[in-house]
Amino acid sequence: MSAKPNKSLILISFLLFGYYLYIAYTLYYGGVHSNEALFFTEKSALLREGDVDQIKLAGLTFPQMPFMLSWVFSFIDLRFSPVLASALGTSALFFIITFSIRTHEHRNWLFLGILITFILHPAFIYFAVSGKSSYMMLIFFYLFLISIFRYFRTNTSYHISVASIYFTLLIFCSVKFFWLMLFILPIIFFVALQSMTVAKNDHMDKIAIAFNTESIRRKLVNKTLAIYLVIFALPITAMLIFRLLNQVYTGDADYYLNSPYANYSTITDQTDNLKNLAQNKLGRIFPEVHFLTTVRIWLFAPLLLFCLGIFKSINRNIFVVFSLFFFMEFLKIKYPNVYIPIHFYAAFICLSWAVIANAKNIKELRFSKYFYLSIIIIQLFTAYITINSSHVPEEKKYLNAFVSLIMRKPLYRGDAEKISNYIRNIKSDDAILADDANAYRIIALTGSAQVFLTPGENSFLAALAQPEKHVSYILATKKESQYDPFGLLNADMIQMFSLKGISLHPVCSNKNWILWRIENKKSYDN
Amino acid sequence: MDKEQKRYIIGILSEHGYITRDDVVRIASFGETSGLSLVKILLNFGYISRKDYQKCLLEEGYDFKDVRLEETDLEVMMQTDLKSVDRDLILPLRIEDGYVVVAVADPTATADFLLIEEKYGCPVKVLLSSDLDIIWLGHKLLGETYVKKAVFELLNRDPESSALVTFTKSQLIIIFSVIALVTVSLFLSFTNTTIVINMLMSSFFLVAVTFKLFLALTGSKLELFQAVSKKEILGAKKQELPVFTIQLPVYREDKLIKKLIWNLQSLDYPREKLDIKLLIEEDDDKTLNAVRDLDFPAIFEVIVVPFHMPKTKPKACNYGLYFSRGEYLTIYDAEDIPDHDQLRKVVILFSKLPENYICIQCALNYFNRNENFLTRMFTLEYSYWFDYMLPGLSTLDIPVPLGGTSNHFKFEKLMELGGWDPFNVTEDADLGIRAFAKGYKVALVNSTTYEEANNEPFNWIRQRSRWIKGYMQTYLVHMRNPSKLIAKIGWKGFLGFNFFIGATPVTFLIYPLLLLIFICYLIFDLDNIRTVFPDWVLYISIFNLAIGNILIIYVNMIAVFKRRYYELILFSILNPFYWLMHSIAAYKGLWQLITKPFYWEKTDHGLSKLQTNREIKTDTK
């Protein structure tokens, strides 16, 4: 590979995109969807077609970056847009990683390992075909690491400021990474110390001299503070401003996290990702509990082993890896009731490549290419084991779908699309009252938001008070649905409507939803 | 006259022990190669101080006259070219009693007297006088042709590039049309018009600031790039170095003259290859007397700039061009401390660059950065401007607005461009754009000139208002015909010019307005503001203002890295206050642009209490 992205690399990336697209298309139209993709589709539909507050929708829907990209793709194909974005994004991730090792001494066989991973690794295929935002998180995470490592090596402001920008973007892809800052703090100090011109080689000696010499101590403090500020000022203030905007606009600074209209995980963290906690806690190979998270990471990303030799040479990297392990453990403490999604584990694979890419000047890697490729192959199997024992139902669902594809078995198609298919045949004049806090799946699968009247629209409250005057249908959850407590239009509300004398007739239903037709609809003229 | 005929000035000085034998040889040799008179070399190239020179001649029995009080006959004087007066320090004043009365600085220059006798057809009557007085009188009375050229050369050659006309007719039509349109719109639909204005202002603010961040990041890629290495400097041969002109335009800088000599003496460049011109205004006796009173040898020539409006620095520099000898030329301010190897670096870099590179800009920074809030903020600003922003512009092939000093030119090309625009108060920025439009390029070199940061708020505002007014002038001049400008500098250059030169004053002007709306929104009754600006407008404007401010702060934060000024990083947080000072200066500049566009706001120098040399030494450690 040359110093510039050669045509073959671009071609391979496009082929990979095509490969992802094929799988994504098969799965999507085979009935396998992710909540996040459906959420993005529904928001894009509302943004394009709904009579909604567009600033609120575009400005506060979270995670912002993937949503905006998905919205851009919605002009090509609304329903498929998040998947298009994720397929392209994952191919871009492949390109970025491969491009970063272009000058590496062992680039040829490193490239092979990367290619194998992106073609066969179930987690990466999952990121590419699910329409989830994981691809973008991994892209910015990788770019952040690469820039940080380059800063460690060169001490230039370009790399540190770019790292800061990537970190900011990373936070707007996955807000949990905000906490990573805590664990990077000591590394920055260590790096600042290393870059001081103190005539000692040993770190402890350097620390001793730095702390006991006033001028060096002052310089060290200034430099450490300067690096902290340059890396973290931007993400912190960006987040503060974002929260200020949330506060100004909605009255809740955490609207982007707490509102089911802005963030799909508000409900999934209370349903899919929480519900099975008790039954999943035990009976797994590696339950996701403290300390065993670390074991799960090693199991999922054995490529870290390959980096051991490099760690010995560049001890700053060890601290970065440690910080990520601490970060993962911290996530378990901070969010005890939510499982850690697989993309956080996949970040460690990207981390390994970042470490390898950064070590391009190290002549002696401790292991051969066979060891590397063996790990890459083993990693595919360990990934299967890890995802198969995942606590997040969606991850398992996709893994089973992949297996079904390979085994040429029919895909499990739930009844999620049953209602959407019915709604597609409803005339656009007949509005459906729906609460997209939980009904975004149905709206997204319908492929258009035109027929729906959602809480973001001005006439929603009037329609909620007197549905018979404003809409022809009501989409409500069933009493037994896990989504029932999270929306305005639930079984209780339907009962209340009935008590008010509104005659409702179920026209279509599935496991979670019923579409009610209003029999005694009144027109405005009445 | 027997005495004078037998003994020449260098012999007299040598006999009195003021110069050594080696000096005599060097002076004679330099006189032959340069064509300069011996007395010129003696007094302007560091061989003897004026005081010692006078003392020696007094001891020899000569009497000094104040030539400025002498009667003059312009007809007689006009027969001598000013350049020869400047070179030989001989000025015929009048014909009196059959003698041509000649003011001379060297009473032993008998060969020159013979030539004058031949020219005027009568014997010479010598009036021994200070060389500075001869220069003063010569330039005052004979400098009219040159000073007119200095003022009107660009205007005559390329009137479209001259800032003599501030607003063209078409520009005035556009400006008044916009004002009328806004006024009518406000009457017709107050809310919608204010919303549109608010959106435009805040979006423009964000885009302009983002562009600056982009430039800074692009520039920061070159942080480790050394345009000229130490090895190359060591390899440069003294004999091959060209003559380098340094122009030092000063006005009432009497306190800085000693400092100036120290700074110039530290330049690592052969003395004989330096052509240093101290440009003093005709009415600036303070500085002239400070030069006269120096206790040690000066290493510069004095050029007195005759009075002519506008009284600006570019006019003085243009005037100095006609008396310059160098292959390359640069400008320093009186308080500047250039890196000692700067001139060598420039010469080496010019030799490496393609022919179309006609200017090399050095970084500017401040030696008194830790003096107070203002100097700290100024240092941050200059650090990101010269270390990041200008390299960014250069990398992206966008016109580079040159810094006030330390821009080194190829002399010929500078003359070809018509020198600086004397009507433009940021003549340097304007020249950068003009050069770019002619297909010439500006390079940046890894060398710094340390200046004195303005440490006094009112003085700062005066200086800044001139800069911002100059940017407005430059923008108006080059935007007289946008399509022509695009044809000259391309779309990229055009956009870069608009966002860098045009946007800078505009952002300063709109900044306090945006801030005011935001503060009103935070402090006062929200409902009242909401009647004018709906939520979505407030969302976008707060977003733009907040992100814009953060990015400005961020750019300032990055600035500390290259020079390791880590202690300044916290001050970058105070940048919004610093920007408010910019806004005050911007409004002052705008007012002056309308009322007195060519007025040169004088900045006082020498206010710093810091010991510069010590500071610099600390930096290099």
Question: Could you characterize what this model shows?
Answer:
The complex is a heterodimer of chains A (526) and B (621). With 526 residues, chain A is mainly alpha-helical. Chain A contains 28 helices and five strands. Chain A has a five-stranded mixed β-sheet with strand order 2-1-3-5-4. In chain A, a hairpin with a 3-residue loop joins strand 4 and strand 5. In chain A, helix 5 (81-100) crosses helix 7, helix 5 runs parallel beside helix 8 (134-154) and helix 8 (134-154) packs antiparallel against helix 9 (157-171). The radius of gyration of chain A is 25 Å and the shape is globular. The termini of chain A are far apart. With 621 residues, chain B is α/β, with parallel strands linked by helices. In chain B, the strands form two sheets. An eight-stranded mixed β-sheet of chain B has the order 6-5-4-7-10-9-11-8, with helices on both faces. In chain B, strands 1-2-3 form a three-stranded mixed β-sheet, with helices on both faces. Chain B is 57% helix and 11% strand. In chain B, helix 20 runs parallel beside helix 21 and helix 21 crosses helix 25. The model of chain B is unreliable at 1-5 and 614-621 (pLDDT under 50). The chains are: A mainly alpha (526), B alpha/beta (621). Chains A and B meet through helix 3, helix 9 and helix 12 of A and helix 12 and helix 24 of B.
Question: Tags for this entry?
Answer:
heterodimer; A: 526 residues; mainly alpha; five-stranded mixed beta sheet; B: 621 residues; alpha/beta; eight-stranded mixed beta sheet; three-stranded mixed beta sheet; disordered N terminus
Question: Summarize this, please?
Answer:
The complex is a heterodimer of chains A (526) and B (621). Chain A has helices at 7-28, 35-49, 54-60, 64-73, 81-100, 107-120, 122-130, 134-154, 157-171, 180-195, 203-212, 214-250, 255-258, 265-268, 272-275, 277-281, 292-300, 303-306, 308-313, 315-334, 342-358, 369-388, 393-406, 416-424, 436-446, 460-465, 467-470, 491-499, and strands at residues 432-433, 452-453, 473-477, 504-509, 513-518.
